[in-house]
Hints:
By secondary structure, this protein is an alpha+beta fold. The protein has a domain at about 65-185: Immunoglobulin-like (Sandwich), CATH 2.60.40. Helix content is about 15%, strand content about 30%. The chain has helices spanning about 1-30, 115; strands spanning about 65-70, 75-80, 85-95, 100-105, 125-130, 135, 155, 160-170, 175-180, 185-190. The strands form three sheets. It has a four-stranded antiparallel beta sheet with strand order 1-2-3-8, with no helix packed on it. A hairpin with a 4-residue loop joins strand 5 and strand 6 (about 135). The longest helix has 27 residues, at about 1-30. The relative contact order is 0.21.
Amino acid sequence: MTMRFTAKTRRGMVALAVAAGLAAGAAGCGSGGDDGKRPEQPASASRTAGAGPSSQEGQSDKPLAELRGSDGLSLQITSAQRDSGGFVTVNGTLKNDGAQSVVIPSALSGNETEIIKNGRSLGGATLVDPKGKKRYYVLRDTEGRPLTTTGFSTLRAGDTLAVFMQFPAPPANQVEFQLPTFSSATLPISG
């Protein structure tokens, strides 16, 4: 019952934040000397695939960890943040460093039937508390959908995808992050 209320509350908070962001963006689009020119993008801007959370303000340019996966995939973890609701959200960027398009391995979704039936995701990710000797799995909503980036299948060469995964918060401030087919990494949890 608590999990159902918490998941619904979290979805409501996310919807409210998105609505506020859209309203602020629309307000900023009004006036301001439109001379017909489009802003130039820097040459170093990377192409992105799919939708995902944007970079959070205040994050350093240096990732917490960089994990290597199969077929030229890499995962840069940019934050592992504990929130007041008792959750840890891990944010990062999945990138295809290879020369060819890569089909995202289905193993990243994990092997739980409830998660697999909801399509491709990062539902196989876990946090391990080495001191408490406990493993924490990606959270699910009341309908069994993992609280992580979903709905992706292929990354073209050089493309990136902003990703997130949400877990129950372990008591430790340092955990081991694991994702099938990727190397593991030790992450500090902030917040």
